[in-house]
Amino acid sequence: MLFLPPALVKSLESRPLEEVLFLRDEMANMAWAVERLVESPADQRLNRFEAYQEQQRRREQDAPPPPEVAPGALRYRLSTDVPDYWIPLIPVRAGQGLRLQRGAVLKTDGSAAHIPSLGRILETGQALSLYEEEVPREGIRVTRSYQFTRWADGSSHLWIGRRKGVRSGEGSSGLRFDSLEP
Q: Are the C-beta atoms of residues 129 and 100 closer than 8 Å to each other?
């Protein structure tokens, strides 16, 4: 006798409530977890890139004008800024291989800053440890979204599910160390 359990034929899926990209940045020689979308306190989608751009715009408006610099003068920068929704993943030796763990970003004043995540995929209080092979050069996209289906008896079921898929390439945080700028 062959037992054939019932299975879902089809389910409906909402737009992602949350989206995180795990990608490689070959120029910085690092891996990153980029929170693109998170669920806001009002249960709406919050685009972290747009929020960061707005925050930068407000900061530039409130900042005093930069001091006059002689033409051709160069300025040394220890490192460039990284957006606050890019969370670094640092390789750490664990047993026989390497794991990628949540790290800290070097701020422009020389101090280290741990970047908190706002979403549920990268929960700040939870340890984040991935096998290095789980973040390929193409990158990974992880989403959270509502799922809905009807069962064979007609009952409806709603849940929040996660999906993982391959992305289309590398990313660049723009992180550079020891640079001279005009």
A: yes
pTM, entire model:
0.81
Q: Are 58 and 51 in contact (CB under 8 A)?
A: no
The helix (run of H) or strand (run of E) holding residue 49 is helix 48-62
Rounded CA-CA distance 159/70 in Å is 61
The model's pLDDT over 75-125, given as tens digits with 9 standing for 90+, comes to 887 777 788 899 999 889 988 888 999 988 777 666 777 788 889 999 888
Cα 143 from Cα 165, distance rounded (Å): 9
Per the DSSP assignment, residues forming a β-bridge with 33 are 22, 87
Residues contacting residue 33 through CB under 8 Å, at least 6 positions apart: 20, 21, 22, 86, 87, 89, 102, 117, 122, 128
Cα 178 versus chain centre, distance: 25
Tally DSSP H helices, then E strands, for the chain: 1, 13
Cα–Cα distance measured from residue 54 to residue 121, given in angstroms and rounded to the nearest whole number: 24
* 30 closest CA partner among 163, 182, 167, 171: 171
